[in-house]
Design a protein that fits this description.
alpha+beta; Rossmann fold; Dna Ligase, domain 1; D-amino Acid Aminotransferase, Chain A, domain 1; eight-stranded antiparallel beta sheet; five-stranded parallel beta sheet; globular
Length: about 500
């Protein structure tokens, strides 16, 4: 029996802050958890009270369902919001919450069990959506047989996983044995299951997903997002609407997403993901949680997606319907990571200065602050920069200006990569796919950029040689295009990587 408005946000970082704000908006009380490494995390300050639930490694804290449940009971919470990652798509955790009398803010157990099993999800979705040819395999002989039947290239995936773990692309029979074994082993380590399925690999498609919110009686789509700029199956830039879709194709793909969720029996916020190539789309999977990139959909629709999650969990139902969803303008999100901008190697460390861009149509979701130490145990995402414009061109230009004014000192970030990507002709024209990064010319390999860096940084170098204090210098120049750091990146990229 629910008797209070206390919500445990079972996560860390910026998504906790995001959910906490939505809770307060509805008069709910946000509570939190943290690991040893997160004792100084900003998300704690946005919760009314937080409990330490264990050591720094996720498997000792945020992935411990028993510790999360215990924290909810100690804090007097009747609701649990999982955020994204960690336990957010674990049907066993949903079942545990139900058994303990707690309300899981997300889809019901049955829907989560389907979406969390890629084989079941494909089977259910195939009733209403086109799917790529594929099947679950249980041994090496099955893999060889099915690969020859489907034809190379093929893809191996973890049945009960996600985030690219266990995923292997195989181009020939010579690669198959080792790929199958490594995929199975990684799936076991990451998800506790060796189940693998094989499917035809569509080379260089676009990755398009449809945002859904649903209650007991209504399923509403909030349009699609273009998520094709990825590295190792991790998204780096997203935009909405997709520049690849005609009005007719947009209507078809969003209608199909709604039908998929009806078949699954979905409730709460979720995303239906598709591959898109040659004006055809194929169902890929369902993400049964709030997505990292949800803010761009909020920017164009005006719908608070987390608020809708909470309303459904409270039994109040959606406050929106399909008729009053009228997307306006264009929005782009850049995921800013604490990584080497060329090698993408994570760089944990101390953030000396952190100042975010501000202005109309600019949003930054982050848990960083000056003086914060980024731990080595978690994802390298440090901020999400979202820019909205009346049209795509305006959104791109606003994003460029915002990236230029983003100040991060003390650690490298992927901002130089984002600047390069947004200035790439393919991106500006909207003609790109998942091969974008592989074909991209980095900022540090362009003669023009080298010359520009020299001329723009020379005055800063003169100031340094004249003895001015570091604190008086522009932290953006120091953290991203400092003269010596520039040549370290350009001439000695491995030195920066191995020094960590």
């Amino acid at each position: 029996m629910v008797n209070n408005n206390n919500v445990l946000i079972a996560n860390r970082g910026e998504i906790v802050i995001r959910v906490a704000r939505a809770c307060k908006k509805l008069g709910l009380h946000p509570y939190g958890i943290y690991s040893d490494s997160d004792k100084d995390s900003l998300h704690i300050k946005y919760c009314e009270q937080s409990l330490n639930i264990g050591d720094s490694l996720p498997q000792d804290s945020y992935l411990r369902a028993d510790k999360v449940i215990d924290a909810a009971k100690k804090l007097g919470c009747d609701y649990i919001h999982p955020g994204y990652g960690f336990l957010s798509e674990n049907p066993k955790f949903v079942e545990l919450c139900n058994n303990e009398g707690l309300i899981f803010i997300g889809p019901p157990y049955d829907a989560m069990a389907i979406s969390g099993d890629k084989v079941r999800a494909r089977k259910v979705a195939s009733k209403v959506a086109p799917v790529v040819e594929g099947i679950e395999v249980s041994n090496e002989n099955d893999v060889i047989k099915e690969a020859e039947k489907i034809g190379y290239p093929i893809m191996l995936k973890a049945v009960e996983g996600g985030g690219g773990r266990g995923l292997r692309i195989v181009n020939s029979s010579q690669e198959l044995d080792s790929a199958y074994l490594s995929s199975k082993n990684e799936a076991m380590v990451g998800f506790g299951s060796e189940r693998i399925y094989i499917e035809k690999y569509i080379e260089n498609p676009r990755h398009i997903e449809v945002q859904i919110v649903a209650d007991e009686s209504n399923i509403v789509h909030l349009g699609e997002r273009e998520c094709s700029i990825q590295r190792r199956h991790q998204k780096l830039i997203e935009e909405t609407p997709s520049p690849a879709l005609s009005t007719e194709m947009r209507n078809e793909i969003t209608h199909t997403a709604v039908e998929v969720m009806k078949e699954i029996g979905y409730k709460s916020a979720g995303t239906v993901e598709f591959l898109f190539k040659d004006n055809r789309f194929y169902f890929m999977e369902v993400n049964a949680r709030i997505q990292v990139e949800h803010p761009i959909t909020e920017a164009v629709t005006g719908v608070d997606i987390v608020e809708q999650q909470l309303l459904v969990a409270l039994g109040k139902g959606l406050s929106v319907n399909q008729q009053n969803i009228n997307p306006m303008g264009h929005a782009i999100e850049c995921r800013i990571n604490a990584e080497h901008p060329l090698s993408f190697v994570p760089f944990p460390g101390v953030v000396k200065k952190f100042n975010v861009p501000k202005g109309n149509g600019i949003r930054v979701d982050t848990a960083l602050y000056s003086g914060y130490t980024i731990p080595i145990f978690y994802d390298s995402l440090i901020a999400k920069l979202i820019c909205w414009g009346n049209n795509r061109h305006e959104a791109i230009e606003k994003m460029k200006d915002s990236l230029l004014s983003f100040r991060i000192l003390g650690i490298p970030s992927t901002i130089p990569f984002h600047m390069s990507a947004l200035n790439d002709t393919r991106f500006m024209d909207g003609c790109y796919d998942t091969s974008f990064i592989n074909k991209m010319i980095s900022f540090s390999t362009r003669d023009g950029d080298i010359a520009a860096a020299v001329f723009s940084l020379l005055p800063k170098r003169i100031e340094l040689l004249e003895g001015k204090e570091e604190e008086q210098q522009d932290p953006w120049m120091r953290s991203r295009f400092d003269w010596m750091d520039f040549f370290d990146i350009y001439y000695y990229p491995n030195r920066l990587v191995t020094s960590q």
